[in-house]
Design brief:
Blueprint (H helix, E strand, L loop, with lengths): L4 E3 L12 E9 L4 H11 L9 E4 L5 E4 L8 E5 L5 H11 L10 E7 L3 E9 L5 H16 L27 H17 L5 H14 L12 H14 L3 H16 L9 E7 L16 E7 L8 H18 L13 H11 L6 H10 L6 E10 L5 E2 L2 E10 L5 E9 L4
Parallel strand pairs: 5-6, 8-10, 10-13
Antiparallel strand pairs: 1-4, 2-7, 2-12, 3-4, 6-7, 8-9, 11-12
Length: 410
Amino acid sequence: MASFQRKIGAERSILMLPFNVVMVARVRGFLNESQIASALERLRNRHAFLAVRVRFDEDGTGWFIGDDVPAARVETEVRSDDARWMSRVQSEYRKPFPIETGPLFRCSLIHSEEVSELVLCGHHMICDGLSMGWLIRDLLTAVADPDMPIEELPPPPPIDDSTVPDPPKTGALARWITGFINRKCERKKLTLNEPDMLRLHERFWEENDRTSLVAWEMDEQATDALARRSREEGVTINSALWAAFLSAQHETQIDRKPYHPQSGLAINTRDRLNVPVGEALGFFASSLTVDLPYDPSVSFWDNARDVHARIDRELTKTNLFRMLAANVLHPTLLDSLYFVKYGLLDGKLQHMLLRKMGFHTVTYGCALTNVGRLDMPTGYGPLELEAVYGPSIFSDVGEKVIGVITIGGR
């Protein structure tokens, strides 16, 4: 594959943020560090974002660069019990990536002779939950057959005005105001780089040090029963899951907050672009904010139907590529938002933008990413994929962040 280079587009708004996406695969069978490292090296030819770093131009423009990127780190530890991987996930949230040297991806192996967990972690700007699921499949396939040729994928396309069917419109007044703001930002000559990002990560986790992780799974019979009942009730599995979590939130959190009904949904945008994306590793997701109150006076399935209708209505009226509107702002202004939020910079304009974007405080009672059912094998030579957990991410604007994926009927 020729050396990859691409301007950072819609991903710019999360470049400096401590948003690491983690996916965990439990595998029955023997795995070791050298197998994983070798497979990841081969997969660089398939997934360009496994081997990129960030370069900044003098004007603040950012680029993904595929030259001179070190191999992805593979860390190992002995598997002490079934829950050890959860501590690893929480530590992966907190570890920043070396954005200017790369790579923006790493892997941990928690291993024993019989069963191991693979903990995959990537910066959110190079991956989403769906692509991490496919990466697990590709990684296990490459481990099971070290001599198999690796099929290259086209480089991940940018999300910009050329690839989006309906870019957000900016009026003349808004363009004038934006131009004024950008010129003001340019005069300040604010630049932020990797050492600054490391300071932000440290401050972020000083103030968000109380996190907990819960893992659960449904067996094949329960998963099938949920799918069948959802069809009978005229809702999607996603709407039923939402109703379940909203019900739990209503029943267990006595100290109710005004933001509890406010819900954040992750939406896959791959099939909504003008260009094919396929199974490329990349950030091809948007979000939908929906008010989803839970009414205990009616049945669970009535609540699920209400959830379904509310999500459908919001989908029809929301431009899922509205994040592109932020691209008219000077890139270092976008970079500086969380620095202002966490007291590392001063800026009235950034405070205003944080409020407008909903990043200034806890906004959601629940934020849910349902990757859906991935049609992928569970057997890889001598290895058996027993379970997948995730996608998992910590967000300071979601009180509870939930990841769901269905593989092997579970």
